[in-house]
Design goal:
single chain; 9 helices
Length: 273
């Protein structure tokens, strides 16, 4: 068997989602996956993390990985240089437009619980009344008045409904407000409103252009519907075994789960061909 480090690798770019994909359920990256990624970069490919998390929720993971390259954060809104700890590009959500979209959704399904991701390297997640906060590495800023969500520039709004499932809420939001904002589901309990036209694919294409690599040479890994545009952009899309059915339906292949080194299994196969 050819050693991975000495093998030719057929792709010039490896794009990996974080949660449910690169990260195991305990939010760590296995040694096997670290070694596989090191092998593909030694073979000449670039690795880009592409995540729905904004930069403040991502950089501690990148630092732990010793990751010094580009990362696409905030569903494509931010291109971040991890080695320089510098934000290269940033797209914000028009707050007036977001408010109009929320009003239209609420007219259809009833009151929503809201949170907003502030823009910038140190932006906080501002959480309005009723919103169910998920555990994370940063403290949330809780506010009593939903109007306080709009005091600073934001890159996205999180919406929750007291009764509707994530799929039903995303579908309803897309139906009534899809001409104003982008709507995506990034994980359990995470339905997001984004600047219209923004996706992981748009952010990844910007980062890839900076690196001089193309979609035709890209393999992408993901687990949720927000990865669908990235799969559409890349030459080869790999869904994890734990992925949402919508992503599996458009994937070129399905690997093992994030708990079972699904990324490494695919990379090792290509490295040893």
């Amino acid at each position: 068997m050819t050693s991975p480090a000495a093998s030719a690798f057929p792709y010039t770019l490896v794009a990996t989602d974080l949660d449910g994909t690169l990260l195991r359920p305990d939010d760590t990256v296995s040694e096997r996956t670290r070694e596989a990624l090191a092998a593909v970069t030694a073979a000449g490919a670039a690795h880009i993390v592409v995540t729905g998390r904004a930069v403040p929720w991502t950089r501690h993971i990148l630092d732990d990985l010793g990751y010094n390259g580009l990362a696409v954060c905030g569903q494509g809104a931010q291109v971040y240089h991890a080695g320089e700890h510098r934000l290269l590009t940033s797209v914000t959500l028009d707050r007036q437009l977001a408010g109009l979209a929320i009003a239209k959704v609420e007219a259809e399904v009833g009151p929503l619980y809201l949170a907003a991701s502030q823009d910038g390297l140190d932006g906080s997640v501002v959480v309005g009344p009723g919103y169910r906060v998920q555990e994370g590495p940063l403290a949330n800023v809780l506010v009593d008045d939903a109007a306080d969500l709009w005091t600073d520039p934001i890159n996205k709004v999180y919406i929750q409904h007291p009764e509707l499932s994530d799929d039903a809420l995303a579908a309803a939001a897309r139906e009534v407000a899809g001409d104003l904002v982008g709507v995506t589901m990034a994980g359990p309990g995470i339905v997001e409103l984004l600047p219209l036209g923004l996706s992981k694919a748009t952010g990844l294409s910007l980062a890839a252009r900076r690196l001089g690599v193309k979609a035709a040479g890209t393999i992408a890994f993901g687990d949720m519907p927000n990865d669908i545009p990235m799969f559409g952009w890349a030459a080869h899309g790999v869904a994890m075994a734990n992925a949402h059915d919508e992503l599996k339906a458009v994937a070129d292949e399905i690997t093992t789960s994030n708990a079972d080194d699904g990324i490494a299994a695919v990379l090792e196969r290509f490295l040893t061909v």
